[in-house]
Design a protein that fits this description.
Layout (H helix, E strand, L loop, with lengths): L6 E2 L3 E4 L6 H9 L15 H13 L9 E7 L5 E7 L7 E5 L8 H15 L4 E7 L3 H9 L3 E10 L4 E11 L10 H5 L3 E2 L2 H5 L6
Antiparallel strand pairs: 1-2, 2-3, 3-4, 4-5, 6-8, 7-8, 7-9
Helix pairs in contact: 1-2
Length: 205
Protein backbone atom coordinates (compact mmCIF):
# COMPACT_ATOMS: atom_id res chain seq x y z
CA UNK A 1 0.00 0.00 0.00
CA UNK A 2 1.51 3.30 -1.07
CA UNK A 3 1.99 6.37 1.06
CA UNK A 4 -0.18 9.06 -0.54
CA UNK A 5 -0.61 11.87 1.99
CA UNK A 6 -4.00 13.58 1.82
CA UNK A 7 -3.64 17.30 1.08
CA UNK A 8 -6.03 20.20 1.67
CA UNK A 9 -6.19 23.65 0.12
CA UNK A 10 -8.65 26.50 0.54
CA UNK A 11 -11.25 24.80 -1.67
CA UNK A 12 -10.00 21.27 -2.21
CA UNK A 13 -9.25 17.90 -0.71
CA UNK A 14 -6.66 15.87 -2.62
CA UNK A 15 -6.83 12.18 -1.73
CA UNK A 16 -6.49 8.71 -3.20
CA UNK A 17 -9.15 7.35 -5.51
CA UNK A 18 -11.05 4.40 -4.02
CA UNK A 19 -13.52 1.88 -5.41
CA UNK A 20 -16.29 4.10 -4.04
CA UNK A 21 -15.27 6.73 -6.60
CA UNK A 22 -15.90 4.68 -9.73
CA UNK A 23 -18.93 6.68 -10.90
CA UNK A 24 -17.08 9.96 -10.38
CA UNK A 25 -13.98 8.57 -12.09
CA UNK A 26 -16.13 7.50 -15.03
CA UNK A 27 -17.53 11.02 -15.36
CA UNK A 28 -14.00 12.45 -15.49
CA UNK A 29 -12.60 10.01 -18.03
CA UNK A 30 -15.63 9.58 -20.31
CA UNK A 31 -15.92 13.12 -21.74
CA UNK A 32 -14.26 13.45 -25.19
CA UNK A 33 -13.48 17.15 -24.63
CA UNK A 34 -11.84 16.52 -21.26
CA UNK A 35 -9.77 13.66 -22.65
CA UNK A 36 -8.95 15.13 -26.05
CA UNK A 37 -5.35 15.90 -25.11
CA UNK A 38 -4.83 13.00 -22.70
CA UNK A 39 -2.97 9.76 -23.53
CA UNK A 40 -5.97 7.42 -23.58
CA UNK A 41 -9.32 7.09 -25.25
CA UNK A 42 -12.43 8.21 -23.34
CA UNK A 43 -14.02 5.47 -21.25
CA UNK A 44 -17.22 4.00 -22.67
CA UNK A 45 -18.74 2.17 -19.70
CA UNK A 46 -18.59 1.60 -15.95
CA UNK A 47 -16.87 -1.71 -16.63
CA UNK A 48 -14.09 0.19 -18.41
CA UNK A 49 -13.94 2.63 -15.50
CA UNK A 50 -13.48 -0.23 -13.03
CA UNK A 51 -10.73 -1.76 -15.15
CA UNK A 52 -9.06 1.64 -15.57
CA UNK A 53 -9.11 2.17 -11.79
CA UNK A 54 -7.74 -1.28 -11.10
CA UNK A 55 -5.04 -1.15 -13.80
CA UNK A 56 -3.88 2.45 -13.43
CA UNK A 57 -4.48 3.30 -9.79
CA UNK A 58 -4.83 0.17 -7.65
CA UNK A 59 -2.30 -2.07 -9.42
CA UNK A 60 0.13 0.54 -10.76
CA UNK A 61 0.31 3.89 -9.00
CA UNK A 62 -0.90 2.81 -5.57
CA UNK A 63 1.30 -0.28 -5.66
CA UNK A 64 4.35 1.98 -5.39
CA UNK A 65 5.83 2.73 -1.93
CA UNK A 66 5.21 6.45 -2.53
CA UNK A 67 2.60 7.85 -4.91
CA UNK A 68 1.30 11.29 -5.77
CA UNK A 69 -1.86 10.32 -7.67
CA UNK A 70 -4.80 12.29 -6.36
CA UNK A 71 -8.50 12.68 -6.84
CA UNK A 72 -9.29 16.41 -6.89
CA UNK A 73 -12.34 16.87 -4.66
CA UNK A 74 -14.21 20.00 -3.65
CA UNK A 75 -14.43 20.21 0.12
CA UNK A 76 -18.18 20.30 -0.16
CA UNK A 77 -19.08 16.69 -0.82
CA UNK A 78 -15.52 15.29 -1.12
CA UNK A 79 -16.45 13.88 -4.56
CA UNK A 80 -13.78 13.65 -7.30
CA UNK A 81 -14.11 16.20 -10.11
CA UNK A 82 -10.65 15.60 -11.58
CA UNK A 83 -7.21 14.25 -10.89
CA UNK A 84 -3.66 15.50 -10.44
CA UNK A 85 -0.46 13.47 -10.26
CA UNK A 86 3.32 13.55 -10.24
CA UNK A 87 5.12 10.36 -11.26
CA UNK A 88 7.85 9.03 -9.00
CA UNK A 89 9.86 7.70 -11.94
CA UNK A 90 11.76 10.02 -14.27
CA UNK A 91 10.86 12.38 -15.79
CA UNK A 92 8.60 12.97 -12.74
CA UNK A 93 5.73 13.93 -15.01
CA UNK A 94 3.10 16.33 -13.66
CA UNK A 95 -0.37 15.90 -15.13
CA UNK A 96 -4.01 16.63 -14.45
CA UNK A 97 -7.54 16.38 -15.81
CA UNK A 98 -10.70 18.19 -14.78
CA UNK A 99 -14.37 17.88 -15.66
CA UNK A 100 -15.31 20.63 -18.11
CA UNK A 101 -17.87 22.33 -15.86
CA UNK A 102 -15.05 23.14 -13.42
CA UNK A 103 -12.68 24.69 -15.97
CA UNK A 104 -11.56 28.33 -15.71
CA UNK A 105 -11.89 28.49 -11.91
CA UNK A 106 -8.22 28.00 -10.99
CA UNK A 107 -8.90 24.55 -9.57
CA UNK A 108 -6.18 22.72 -11.52
CA UNK A 109 -3.67 25.40 -10.55
CA UNK A 110 -4.66 25.22 -6.88
CA UNK A 111 -4.32 21.43 -6.88
CA UNK A 112 -1.04 21.55 -8.80
CA UNK A 113 0.54 23.99 -6.35
CA UNK A 114 -0.39 21.77 -3.41
CA UNK A 115 1.07 18.62 -4.96
CA UNK A 116 4.21 20.45 -6.09
CA UNK A 117 4.76 21.75 -2.58
CA UNK A 118 4.37 18.23 -1.18
CA UNK A 119 6.83 16.58 -3.57
CA UNK A 120 9.32 19.35 -2.85
CA UNK A 121 8.98 18.71 0.90
CA UNK A 122 9.51 15.02 0.23
CA UNK A 123 12.73 15.64 -1.69
CA UNK A 124 11.81 15.12 -5.35
CA UNK A 125 14.50 17.03 -7.27
CA UNK A 126 12.37 18.26 -10.19
CA UNK A 127 9.14 17.78 -12.13
CA UNK A 128 8.37 18.03 -15.83
CA UNK A 129 5.16 18.35 -17.81
CA UNK A 130 4.20 18.40 -21.47
CA UNK A 131 1.24 19.72 -23.39
CA UNK A 132 0.04 19.64 -26.97
CA UNK A 133 0.67 22.98 -28.71
CA UNK A 134 -3.06 23.01 -29.50
CA UNK A 135 -3.85 23.06 -25.77
CA UNK A 136 -2.05 26.20 -24.55
CA UNK A 137 -4.22 26.59 -21.44
CA UNK A 138 -2.51 23.51 -20.04
CA UNK A 139 0.74 25.42 -20.32
CA UNK A 140 -0.93 28.19 -18.35
CA UNK A 141 -1.39 25.81 -15.41
CA UNK A 142 2.25 24.79 -15.66
CA UNK A 143 3.36 28.41 -15.58
CA UNK A 144 1.08 29.22 -12.64
CA UNK A 145 2.75 26.54 -10.50
CA UNK A 146 6.20 27.90 -11.39
CA UNK A 147 7.26 25.70 -14.29
CA UNK A 148 9.36 27.11 -17.14
CA UNK A 149 9.13 26.30 -20.84
CA UNK A 150 12.24 24.48 -22.10
CA UNK A 151 11.66 23.21 -25.64
CA UNK A 152 9.20 21.68 -28.11
CA UNK A 153 9.38 18.36 -29.93
CA UNK A 154 7.36 16.09 -32.21
CA UNK A 155 6.13 12.64 -31.23
CA UNK A 156 3.94 10.01 -32.88
CA UNK A 157 1.64 9.76 -29.89
CA UNK A 158 0.31 6.39 -28.82
CA UNK A 159 -2.19 4.80 -28.50
CA UNK A 160 -3.99 7.53 -30.47
CA UNK A 161 -1.35 7.35 -33.24
CA UNK A 162 -1.27 11.10 -33.83
CA UNK A 163 1.68 13.28 -34.75
CA UNK A 164 1.79 15.83 -31.94
CA UNK A 165 4.06 18.75 -31.18
CA UNK A 166 4.58 18.89 -27.42
CA UNK A 167 5.98 21.66 -25.25
CA UNK A 168 8.10 20.58 -22.30
CA UNK A 169 7.99 22.53 -19.06
CA UNK A 170 10.17 21.92 -16.02
CA UNK A 171 10.43 23.04 -12.40
CA UNK A 172 13.62 22.29 -10.49
CA UNK A 173 12.85 21.88 -6.80
CA UNK A 174 16.36 21.32 -5.43
CA UNK A 175 18.02 24.57 -6.45
CA UNK A 176 19.68 23.18 -9.58
CA UNK A 177 18.36 25.84 -11.92
CA UNK A 178 20.37 24.69 -14.93
CA UNK A 179 18.92 21.15 -15.12
CA UNK A 180 16.91 20.42 -18.29
CA UNK A 181 15.39 17.00 -18.95
CA UNK A 182 16.85 16.12 -22.35
CA UNK A 183 15.37 12.71 -23.21
CA UNK A 184 12.52 13.96 -25.41
CA UNK A 185 14.86 16.36 -27.22
CA UNK A 186 17.37 13.59 -27.86
CA UNK A 187 14.78 11.04 -29.02
CA UNK A 188 12.82 13.31 -31.34
CA UNK A 189 14.08 13.99 -34.85
CA UNK A 190 12.20 17.31 -34.78
CA UNK A 191 12.92 19.52 -31.79
CA UNK A 192 13.23 23.28 -31.37
CA UNK A 193 12.79 26.21 -28.99
CA UNK A 194 9.84 28.56 -29.54
CA UNK A 195 11.15 31.92 -28.45
CA UNK A 196 7.67 33.46 -28.40
CA UNK A 197 6.42 30.88 -25.88
CA UNK A 198 8.87 32.10 -23.26
CA UNK A 199 7.55 35.64 -23.64
CA UNK A 200 3.83 34.83 -23.80
CA UNK A 201 1.55 34.30 -20.79
CA UNK A 202 -1.30 31.87 -21.41
CA UNK A 203 -4.41 31.80 -19.21
CA UNK A 204 -4.68 28.86 -16.83
CA UNK A 205 -7.47 26.50 -15.88
Amino acid sequence: MSNTPTLETERLILRKFTENDLEALYQIYRDPDVNRFLPWFPLQSMDEARKFFEDRYASLLYAEPQAYAYAICLKRGNRPIGYVKVDMAEPHDFGYGLRAEFWHQGIATEAGRAVTAQVKRDGLPYITATHDVNNPRSGGVMRQIGMKYQYSYEEQWQPKDLLVTFRLYQLNLDGNGSRVYQKYWNESAVHFVEEEVSAHVFPAL
